[in-house]
Automatic annotation (TrEMBL):
SUPFAM superfamilies: Homeodomain-like (SSF46689). InterPro entries: Homeodomain-like_sf (IPR009057), Transposase_8 (IPR002514). GO terms for biological process: DNA transposition. It comes from Leuconostoc carnosum (strain JB16). GO terms for molecular function: DNA binding; transposase activity. This is Transposase. Gene3D superfamilies: Homeodomain-like. It holds the Pfam family HTH_Tnp_1. Keywords: Plasmid.
Amino acid sequence: MKAKRYSTEFKSSIVTLYNEGRSANSLANEYHLAVQTVTGWVKKAQIIGTDVTGKPVTRAEFNAMQKEVARLLVDFYSLVVN
C-alpha cells in the first residue's frame, strides 16, 4: 500500500495542537492518523539547539545537516585520494 503524504502545513498544525496540550492519541483519533505518525512529526519538529546565528534547529533540520556533512566529507576524501 502506498504511503499517504501530508502537507507541511497539515503536519505543522498537528504539531501545534500537540504543543498546545492535545494528546497524540486524541489527535490521531480525530484526524485518522496512526499515533506513531503524530509522535514522529512532533519529534522531528522538536527544537534541539541553535545554529551559529542563533536560529532554532529542529531534529529534522539537524538530521539533514548531518547527511550533508557526511556527503561533503565523502566528496572531500575522494578529492584527497585522487
